[in-house]
Automatic annotation (TrEMBL):
Pfam families: DUF2630. It comes from Parafrankia irregularis. This is DUF2630 domain-containing protein. Residues 59-81 are annotated as: Disordered.
Amino acid sequence: MDDTKIFERIDTLVAEEHSLRLRRSQGDIDSDAERDRLVELEQTLDQCWDLLRRRRAARSVGADPDDTHAGSGNQVEGYLQ
């Protein structure tokens, strides 16, 4: 997956996240399924950003960015800010 496709995926995920958060703030949704989906979206977004960072790092050292992979959800969520 190239950077453009990763950014497209991020845009799609962000749009869904914003829609869910808006509907939730308006009281339209409040189920466990929606809350679970928000957590899943946040984790997937973190993985997408991680993949972009890893691809950028690979390029900076002359490695093939297509050989990089995103960290697991647990790994990415465990990063310190």
